[in-house]
Specification:
single chain; alpha+beta; Arc Repressor Mutant, subunit A; 5-stranded antiparallel sheet; 9 strands; globular
């Protein structure tokens, strides 16, 4: 069964619901996949996303931002306004069901309602996402960091790295430092951005 939930008054999310479409994440059942649509009212760009649970971790696997007919162009600020972590945590929280009991391989789960239940679900989803373990810092990964940095050198490149890898500012700065140390980015000069 396909279920649609509103995202305020700006869009909706849809997921297949039922025994064949659930995955267990901690003490919650989540849909394997959720499709998000923010249609772009008033000429704003349209956003679509595919969220998916991969190896027990709720993730954003695809996101598209596109101009609508007779709408304005996609701007840099459109990318900055999307918080992928908040979207994944909030939308999965809205679809989650809490496991209340498990006996003989049968799981009894209930969809909770109310603000407190929603906040608890968001915390559980966030914890599952943080449990992914440390990222391996490989030469390939550092090359990707350098590419992100160079593509955003005229804006705030370290913040672009932070957003791309969904990490803290200090961790993004560490990735950039390691990319420089590996010779993938030039040394810095005080007050000048170099890529």
């Amino acid at each position: 069964m396909r279920t649609r939930k509103s995202i305020g008054n700006i869009g909706y999310a849809e997921a297949q619901i039922g025994p064949d479409h659930w995955v267990r994440v901690g003490d919650r059942l989540l849909p394997k996949q959720i499709h998000v649509v923010l249609p772009g009212a008033g000429g704003q760009p349209r956003l679509t996303a595919r969220l998916e649970v991969v190896e027990g971790i709720p993730q954003c696997r695809e996101i598209t931002i596109a101009s609508v007919e007779n709408g304005r162009e996609v701007k840099q600020n459109d990318l900055r306004t999307v918080s992928i972590a908040e979207m994944v945590e909030g939308i999965y929280a809205g679809f989650s069901e809490k496991i209340e009991r498990e006996e003989n391989g049968v799981i009894m789960a209930v969809a909770s309602s109310g603000e407190i239940a929603y906040v608890d679900a968001m915390h559980d989803i966030a914890a599952a996402r943080k449990g992914r373990g440390a990222r391996k810092i490989t030469p390939t990964f550092l090359a990707e960091v350098a590419d992100v940095y160079r593509a955003n050198v005229n804006e705030n490149p370290t913040q672009a790295v932070r957003r791309t890898y969904d990490v803290s500012t200090s961790m993004a700065a560490e990735y950039v430092r390691r990319a420089r140390k590996a010779g993938l980015l030039p040394a810095t000069t005080s007050g000048k951005k170099q890529a």
